[in-house]
Specification:
The protein is mostly helical. It has a single domain (2-210, 239-435), classed as Growth Hormone, Chain: A (Up-down Bundle), CATH 1.20.1250.20. The chain is built from 17 helices and 2 strands. α11 runs antiparallel to α17, α13 (322-342) runs antiparallel to α14 and α13 (322-342) runs antiparallel to α17. The chain starts with a helix and ends in a 10-residue tail after the last helix.
Length: 445
């Protein structure tokens, strides 16, 4: 049942990424077909990320009191609807503006697409907290780093597969002036929605609930107060006591706040490459969208390996203290991104792949282990709350990685300033991980 839980939650969260990381490949098509600016596209990314982070902050505590299985599948179904609505954006914009061209239509289109993508960001928030909640219930803290690293591969699998699929989709049909298929951007949303529908049917029959919901006993955990062993399902506490413990373990915990700052830097670095990578490589390095899609996919594949390594190293070498592993990996990410940027335009695509693969290997380890550290310190009772709180920092980073990078690139006419800033963020993240060197591995006694 542990293996079944791990496999099905990986599949479930992979499908969320199919419905979330498809915009980056569609952006050149939106710019070509409708003249939507980089600032507007960056604003889509920023608002999506901010709403997603706020959504996780709200959903996290709710998932601690609810059935995570229902949360995950319900959110996935609604995210499919939001993606289909985004693909039909021009139809809705024409109904609003009363015409299919002109400034009024463009304004209506940007508004419709923005609303659809923000709604998708809110619905995406129902994916991560329930998954981590299930992991914390099924897996004891002594081996959670390794198992969480395996589960975290869902991020890379989903983002990697959808970028390759959408990269080829954008090259189909009649090519426009920018070298991408005219009107093909819609299928970057329709095709992932079809895949997610098939996956949702599979999850309905296979995704388990908590061990207690399946008629089994979960592992016994001891909280840091030393009050003795207890099973969450058998422990009755007053609401005021639960809230007080959540305040102490999460909201007033300085270590959790430090982890949040680390999340900000890690996610800024990751999203800058994942969201802007295809357009950046096309404009500054002369790489085709199909080639850029494969490069980002290799970034994700290397991320899987980096995540697995970080989980194994945390359990094997660091005694569960993930920030020690994350420190060295963030330094490695800064070095690899610097090497990528120093490569001249129209170099061999294999050099770009090698540099960004190294960055992906180093970035995804900290991305997974920050969540592990928060979950273990908050204990399984408040896993969703801790994930929701640190997500405020994680997705607050899109203020720069989304709108900020688009604005800088448009204002300066170059990708130099935005990318150098991202390298600086990776170095700042390394500093904060160093400050967490002596953090204990978990909140159990």
């Amino acid at each position: 049942m542990q293996r079944r839980m791990l496999v099905t939650t990986i599949i479930g969260y992979t499908l969320f990424y199919f419905l979330r990381k498809n915009l980056s490949l569609a952006m050149p098509g939106l710019a070509q077909d409708y003249g939507i600016t980089k600032s507007s596209l960056g604003l889509f990314l920023t608002l999506h990320g901010v709403v997603y982070g706020l959504g996780k902050f709200v959903v996290g505590p709710i998932s601690d009191r609810s059935r995570p299985r229902r949360f995950l599948m319900g959110g996935l179904a609604l995210a499919m609807v939001a993606n289909v609505a985004f693909g039909f954006g021009p139809v809705f914009a024409a109904l609003i503006a009363g015409e299919a061209t002109g400034a009024a239509f463009t304004t209506a289109l940007v508004t419709v697409l923005g609303v659809a993508w923000v709604a998708n960001g809110l619905l995406q928030a129902s994916g991560n907290p329930p998954c981590l909640k299930l992991l914390s219930y099924w897996i004891p803290p002594e081996t959670l780093a390794t198992k969480l690293a395996i589960w975290n591969s869902s991020h890379s699998i989903g983002a990697g597969l959808v970028t390759v699929m959408c990269g080829y989709i954008m090259g189909l049909g009649a090519l426009g002036a920018d070298g991408v298929g005219i009107g093909m951007w819609r299928w970057c949303f329709f095709a992932p929605a079809i895949v997610a529908a098939a996956g949702l049917a599979f999850l309905f029959f296979t995704l388990p609930g908590t061990p207690e919901e399946e008629g089994m006993e979960g592992f016994i955990g001891r909280d840091s107060s030393g009050s003795g062993c207890s099973r969450d399902a058998r422990t009755a506490r007053k609401s005021s006591e639960v809230n007080d413990s959540a305040m102490r373990r999460v909201y007033l915990n300085p270590v959790i706040w430090m982890i949040g700052v680390c999340c900000f830097m890690v996610y800024l670095t990751r999203f800058a490459i994942l969201d802007w990578g295809p357009m950046l490589m096309k404009e500054s390095k002369g790489v085709s969208l199909a080639g850029a899609g494969w490069t980002v996919a290799c970034f994700e594949i290397a991320g899987i390996l980096g995540t697995l390594f970080s989980g194994w190293a945390t359990d094997r070498w660091a005694g569960g203290r993930a920030p020690r592993v994350c420190l060295f990996m963030m330094l490695g990410a800064a070095v690899c991104m610097g090497a990528f940027w120093l490569l001249p335009a129209k170099s061999s695509v294999f050099l770009y792949v090698a540099a960004l693969s190294g960055a992906g290997f180093c970035i995804y380890g900290p991305q997974a282990m920050t969540g592990l550290t928060a979950v273990n310190l908050a204990t399984k009772r408040f896993a969703g709350t801790a994930v929701g709180f640190t997500s405020l920092f994680s997705y607050g980073s899109v203020l720069f990685s989304g709108w900020g990078m688009g604005f800088l690139a448009e204002r300066t006419g170059s990708w130099t300033a935005p990318f150098v800033s991202v390298i600086g963020a990776a170095l700042i993240g390394a500093v904060f991980f160093a400050l967490l060197w002596k953090t204990r591995p978990n909140g159990y006694s």
